């Protein structure tokens, strides 16, 4: 990473683009991109998003016979990734076997499915956990099964509040969620929850594939299109390639503290694998799902960006059709907010989503009853012990987000000396 830059981001920086080209291109283009990236990068402070591409870089450079001192580092990351993933798949197969025995269907998605179906090499795709989707209507049953096997839930993440000691000084000790904490209201605004077993193996249990469209029937078509996958001999399900590409693109085109540049490699792997098999990706399915879930803008922009890394460009008709799908002003606004560092507007968008979900679940109540019950709802969703904690968190978030906004405004007006 070029010195002076921060880690957070949305779209790849020039240095990250060079790394992507070194990973995804071939011949002179890949070799030249690697040398240019190496000349501008500090391997000791490389950002986490770039680090995650080292296994892919290693295999690509090795296939071209490139010998470089840095190959020792890239090779170590590749070997470590392969070892970690083999362990992960071993543990995952045990859980899937138990879920299957109890009649609980499960769809693998994100890294655990991508590495198996599209990369074809456990060393190419680093993973910290495994993502599993269960039927929305059976999520409580799935949580009962998992917790009964000794898994415990994570503390509900709070933006900006990762320091538990600070929370304790404020009189608030975050606790793991118990089974009784999983209510209909909680399921209506969250799309997943982390669970960890005694061996420190973590799964991200989803009851919705995507954040932001959490109606009870939101995932019905994902389940209809699911196909078989085998994990260490245990049968499970994986998403249709078009649905997996939708998830990769919609997650990629969002600002993140860890630059989400890996989505480019993931999307390229999906398109290349499906095209190489002659099957062809169901683009109409992708377009319809993007529209149905309000993801037209991120998918359109992501595919347009992806085009520069593919040997065979995406069909023009697909990009034109995505471009012709109407997007509301609210949709444009939310997209602009989500692709920038979190600030006051991002908080308002999130609050609007929470209110909308809360109102839908409490549609039978009058407006006054809904407004008066909203703070208690937020307290429950965030996992807070008292209303005082909600006030403290709200003030903290307002100050933090305003500070970010003012810092960004200062940089835009006067420039950022550290980046010069």
Task: Give a short summary of the structure.
This protein has helices at 14-24, 27-40, 48-51, 54-63, 71-101, 111-119, 139-148, 164-169, 184-189, 220-224, 241-252, 262-276, 283-292, 296-306, 316-324, 329-338, 344-361, 367-382, 387-414, and strands spanning 107-109, 130-133, 152-153, 192-196, 202-206, 227-231, 234-238.
- What is the number of helices? 19
CATH class of the domain at 92-239: Alpha Beta
- Quick one: overall form? globular
- Share in β-strands: 5-15%
Biggest sheet: strands side by side, in what order? 3-4-5-2-1-7-6
Distance between the termini: 14 Å
Provide mean pLDDT, rounded: 87
Number of strands: 7
- Which regions contain 5 or more consecutive residues with pLDDT less than 50? 1-6
Named CATH architecture of the domain at 92-239: 2-Layer Sandwich
Sheet/helix structural class: alpha/beta
Main beta-sheet annotation: 7 strands, mixed
Q: Per CATH, what is the topology of the domain at 92-239?
A: Beta Polymerase, domain 2
Instruction: State the helical fraction.
Output: 55-70%
Q: List SSEs in N-to-C order.
A: HHHHHEHEHEHHEEHEEHHHHHHHHH
Radius of gyration: 22 Å
Instruction: Give the assembly state of these chains.
Output: single chain
How would you portray this structure in words?
It is a single chain. This protein has 420 residues and is an alpha/beta fold. Among the domains are: 92-239, Beta Polymerase, domain 2, CATH 3.30.460; 343-419, no CATH class. It is built from 19 helices and seven strands. It has helices at 14-24, 27-40, 48-51, 54-63, 71-101, 111-119, 139-148, 164-169, 184-189, 220-224, 241-252, 262-276, 283-292, 296-306, 316-324, 329-338, 344-361, 367-382, 387-414, and strands at 107-109, 130-133, 152-153, 192-196, 202-206, 227-231, 234-238. β4 (192-196) and β5 form a beta hairpin. α11 crosses α13. It is globular and about 65 Å long. It starts with 13 loop residues before the first helix and ends in a 6-residue tail after the last helix. Residues 1-6 have low confidence and may be disordered.
